[in-house]
Design a protein that fits this description.
66 residues; 35% strand; 4 strands; four-stranded antiparallel sheet; mainly beta
Length: 66
């Protein structure tokens, strides 16, 4: 399972209509020891995660946008 920490939120003035109702988050992927691994990504929040929370792939969709 891939883990990531939520490090922020994204404000979008224009969003794809398919994303209506979803919050966008900035996440930092973590390695097996819980340390940052790679670059932060934008993710679709499907479960109501908040800044500072650690989420897994089954809980938070790792969808890179852009």
């Amino acid at each position: 399972m891939r883990l990531a920490t939520v490090i922020g939120t994204v404000v979008a003035t224009i969003k794809n209509p398919e994303l209506t109702g979803y919050k966008l988050l900035v996440i930092q992927p973590l390695d097996g020891k819980g340390k940052p691994a790679g670059k932060p990504m934008v993710s679709i929040d499907s479960v109501g995660a908040g800044v500072g929370e650690v989420s897994g792939k089954g809980v938070l969709t790792f969808s890179v946008l852009g």
